[in-house]
Amino acid sequence: MRRTRDAERTRGEILAAATGEFAKVGIAGARVDRIAELAGCNKAMIYAYFGNKDGLFDAVFTAYVEAYLAEVGFSADDLPAYAGRVFDYFEASPDHLRLAVWYRLERPGSARLEVVLEVNAARLEELERARAAGTLVSDFSPVELLSLVQAIATSWSSMNPEFESGVPDQPARRRAVVAAVERLVGPATK
Fold it and tell me: What topology does CATH give the domain 7-185?
C-alpha cells in the first residue's frame, strides 16, 4: 500500500522527532540523520522544510513557545497563579524546559526569534501596566520581576540529584513556588 504525501503530517513528524532530539542533546549534539530516521523521512525533506539544522531548531522552539503560551497564559495581576501554571507546564513537559535551557546555552549571540521578542515585550508591558495601575506593587523592575518569577517557577527542575531524598512531592513543590512568588510581589492593592 502506497502512502500518499501529506506535507503537514510530514512536517509535524519532523518537528516531533526534532523536539525530542534537541531536548535530549541540544543543537550541537542533534543529528539531522537521527531526526530524519525518527520522523520516517529522508534528510532532504528536513532541508526542504527548514533550510538547515538551525532553522529546524527555530521552528521547534517557536512551536514550543506557542504551545507554552496557549497553555500557561500570563497575567501580571496574579503572578503567583502564573508561577503555578508555569510549574505545572514544565512538570508535564520536561522536554520543553530542556529546549529552553538549550536555547539559552547555545543561542546567546544569535539572531533573536520574533516569537520570543514579542512574548517578552508583551509580558513586560503588562507588568508595567499593572504597576502603573497599582494592582502590582513591587520594588523590582518589570524585567527583574519576570526573571525572578520564571526562576522560582522552574527552580525545582534545576535541583542537583543529590537533593533527591529531601525533595518534597509535586503538590508541595507547587505550593512552595506559589508561596514564594506571593512573598516576592506582596499583597496587591486592588
Answer: Tetracycline Repressor; domain 2 (1.10.357)
